[in-house]
Amino acid sequence: MSVSESYAKEIKTAFKQFADFPMQGEQFEDFLPIIGNPKLFQKLINAFKTHLEEKFVKEKIDFIAGIEARGLLFGPSLALALGVGFVPIRRAGKLPGECAGVTFSKLDREETFEMQVEAIPFDSNVVIVDDVLATGGSASAAGELIKQGGAHILEYDFVLTLNSFRGEEKLTAPIFSIIHS
């Protein structure tokens, strides 16, 4: 699916920028205004849904895995639209039960993501979602969790990819993004 230039521009315009967040010298791209606009949010979900249904005609998507924090906000809506399961990937200590974890470097610190061990059955097909792809650390860690359980990553989907960070180089499956900046 090719996302129309006017739609991508509409989504990009809705992002709000915050200078020096989360640390000095960083420019934070906040997509929360999209969720606050029901029509725009529905367009976003529909764009991802259409793309995934067109791309994965022969392969069945079993789960959407949403990366904390913002992948947890739109991932469930996308999973519901597709009629598939949703699995959260969260920071350490946020999920009950037995969890698998992966530690990765993020900006100036190490962080650990976890997923419940039995959340995704072996040999399932998974699409991982998040709002922004920058360095690829979070998405790569999420992918490692999926692979640890014996599932397959069909694709990584993002609202925005910041090309200058080259995060796609850390990922082991194709990526799809509404906006490239």
Automatic annotation (TrEMBL):
Organism listed in the record: Saccharomyces arboricola (strain H-6 / AS 2.3317 / CBS 10644) (Yeast)
Gene Ontology BP annotations: adenine salvage; AMP salvage; purine ribonucleoside salvage
Q: What does the sequence similarity comment in the record state about its family?
A: Belongs to the purine/pyrimidine phosphoribosyltransferase family.
- Binding partners and assembly: Homodimer.
Gene Ontology MF terms in the entry: adenine binding; adenine phosphoribosyltransferase activity; AMP binding
Q: Which UniProt keywords apply?
A: Cytoplasm, Glycosyltransferase, Purine salvage, Transferase
Swiss-Prot/TrEMBL catalytic activity: AMP + diphosphate = 5-phospho-alpha-D-ribose 1-diphosphate + adenine
Which PANTHER family does this entry report, sorted A to Z? ADENINE PHOSPHORIBOSYLTRANSFERASE (PTHR32315)
Which Enzyme Commission number(s) are listed? 2.4.2.7
What are the Phosphoribosyltransferase domain coordinates in residue numbering? 37-152
Which Gene3D superfamilies did the record assign? 3.40.50.2020
Annotated protein name in UniProt = adenine phosphoribosyltransferase
Please state where this protein is localized: Cytoplasm
Pathway membership, UniProt: Purine metabolism; AMP biosynthesis via salvage pathway; AMP from adenine: step 1/1
Function, as annotated: Catalyzes a salvage reaction resulting in the formation of AMP, that is energically less costly than de novo synthesis.
A GO cellular component annotated for this chain's UniProt record is:
cytoplasm
Q: Which InterPro entries match?
A: PRTase-like, PRTase_dom, UPRTase/APRTase
Top class in the EC scheme: transferase
Under SUPFAM superfamilies, the record lists:
PRTase-like
